[in-house]
From TrEMBL:
Keyword presence, Phosphoprotein: no
SUPFAM superfamilies to which the protein is assigned, alphabetical: PLC-like phosphodiesterases
Membrane topology: Multi-pass membrane protein
Pfam family, one: GDPD
A GO molecular-function descriptor: glycerophosphodiester phosphodiesterase activity
Protein name: GP-PDE domain-containing protein
InterPro entries referenced in this protein's UniProt entry, alphabetically: GP_PDE_dom, PLC-like_Pdiesterase_TIM-brl
Single Gene Ontology BP annotation: lipid metabolic process
TM region positions: 52-76, 96-124, 136-154, 174-194, 203-223, 504-525
Amino acid sequence: HLTFGLGQPGAMADAPGCCRPCATCLLCLYSCQWITAKKEKRKGLRTTKCDCSWFLFLFCVFLFTLVWVYFAIVILNDFHNFNEFIFRQRKLWLDWSLVLLIATAMLITYSAVLLVLALCLQLCGQPLKLHWLHKTLLILTALVVAAAFTGLGIKWAEEWRSARISLQATGPFLHIGIVGGMTFLAWPLASFIYRTRNTGLKVFLLLVYCAVMIALYLAPLGITSPCIMEGNQLPPKPALVGHRGAPMLAPENTLMSLRRAVDCDVQVFETDVMVSADGVPFLMHDEELTRTTNVQAVFPERAALNSTAFNWTDLQQLDAGSWFLERRPFPTVQSLSADDRDQVTKQRIPSLEEVLKAAKQSNISIMFDLRPENHSDYQSFVNATLEVILQSGIPLQQVLWLPDGFREQVKQQAPGVQQVYGRKRHQNEKEPLLHVNLPYQDMSSEEIRQYRQDNISVNLYVVNQPWLFSVLWCSGVSSVTTNACQVLKEMKHPIWLLPSSTYLMIWIVVDCTSFLAILWAFLLLKYV
């Protein structure tokens, strides 16, 4: 019977600093059995090699789940895109971020509680007899988290780049947290080392622990963040571009959404334009009308048709607002006033002409894509859109043109329109780019700074979380497209900004405090 000299008979009675009822309760929760001191002594319960392996597995599952918790928090910035994707595939609307958060909270809570029980048992000198039910649930937890990471890598690979960007915002604080966690781990580790009689295992654990701590102490040498800078070096706050207006405060791509965006000090209204069957440009993002209108109730037999298959008279019959109250795409919908709710129900699909008129009155620019670019009549779409722009009277410099199709024609017919490109600049480019519009994952902080030095305006999308906005602000981005203009508007400075000298001092204090705490743990437990 292979053991490690742990959990000897009578240990419950003799365990230092651990009362008998507490030890019994801890062992009961961990082992799913009511094991009293007499019963433990009679059975001669000990921590075997198999028990230690399960403890190691528990620790790894906890770390694995903790990493997933971090990813889950990061991807919340883009989760509305996932909700829209599921709706297009299944015609089912649900805020899947709630499902993600609840499931993740359950997994991390379970593994964390079980790990704390195991560590307390170790400090009390009790055997680590993990029940088979806990073993099964731990395996299931590991499989669920592994499946989540696999799905993320297959269907949403760009989120790995989002995670790398997030480390620029969280790196210094993650370092402090991990050092603190590993320092706390010194207490049960010291207790284990002083109780076990296996010299080889003692040396192995000490070497591994020391190697990890040395790596952590030196980790700040590899941590980089654009927000580690002097306060006087901070670039201006990025301008806000309303993604389909202010979609957290009003139905997307409506006049109400434009007005709410103006209230948020948004400088550009970003939208999507389609052209009806009778040649009227109008605002709509999806190729189908089912998500943001009541087309299934008004034209049930035509609901699955492309938006461009409807004429303008038909489109005007649709309600483009009530879905916002029914589906609640964002939690902010619940806080709308009665007047706002009434105004939402009156929203209709706006024409491009109406939107340009409103933008002109509000002195706000408009940036749009023209969809769908693979349509056989796309050139006629371009012509119809240009005609409306030129007849609207809006200053052409307030119009930002995104579509690549027939761009040269647009430059000739409306030379004042600002051309915005959805790509990075090329070497030896004949005509230098002045404006680029890219996903925030596609540009590094170094590239943003270089474009800024070359007077190229960089707009990144879609940026909703303050931590991400802070990183891009410190990097020097010109503007960001956002769903959360009401949140980013209130930010007067990045979430954190540290001079390099201050960061160095924090690093030294954290590492020295950790080292002294570990030393104290090993010295104290040696004589307990």
